Amino acid sequence: MSKSIVTPEKRKEYSDRHKESNPDWKEKHAVLNKRWITNNRERYNQLKAEYRFKLKVDAISHYSGGTMQCAICGFGADLDALCLDHINDDGAEHRKALKCGGRGNSGGTTIYERFKALGWLPGLQVLCANCNTIKAIRLRRGSTAAAQYEIIKAKPDRSRK
Fold it and tell me: How is the chain split among helix, strand and coil, in percent rounded to 5?
């Protein structure tokens, strides 16, 4: 007797039939999931951490063109120091449109999930934490540190002597 291969299409077909014949499946599964999580908290936390890390790897890999490095300085020694950056500085509007991030909304993993589900949206790049912070400071200040230093240097010293 040969074992039949279950294709993703067959699995989806079975799942759809199951959902149609069991209208309260969602509530039943929610109870079962909650019970499993309660009884297997450590394993659940481990699986979620692995899931979140894989999502981040997928996002960083995609938006860095596979280099897994900062678009500005080339840093790539530690994945935890890399993050996604909106090239046009429209991240707040983008997160609002996607309904993720901000107070009362989820961010982090959710935004990676949304980007992946929507087909890796354009307009993002990978930056290291340092370059991302420097970019934000310059955006607020309106100039580079060197330009700001020249402005300060050109002003007369008004400190007390």
Answer: 60, 5, 35
Please provide the DSSP assignment of 95-140 as one string.
Answer: HHHHT-SSTTS--THHHHHHHHHTT--SSEEEEEHHHHHHHHHHHH
Domain boundaries, the chain: 42-149
Q: Which residue has the tokens 């499946």?
A: 25
Give the position of tokens 């400190």.
159
Closest among 161, 151, 49, 150 to 108, alpha carbons compared: 49
The pair of structure tokens assigned to 123 is 């307009």
**3-class DSSP assignment, residue 71:** coil
Give residue for tokens 């935004």. 111
The model scores a pTM over 0.85 = no
> pLDDT tens digits for 113-144?
888 888 998 889 999 999 999 998 888 888 77
N-terminal to C-terminal alpha carbon distance within the chain:
97
Give the pLDDT of residue 97: 79
Predicted confidence (pLDDT) per residue in 28-59, tens digit: 889 999 999 999 999 999 999 999 999 999 99
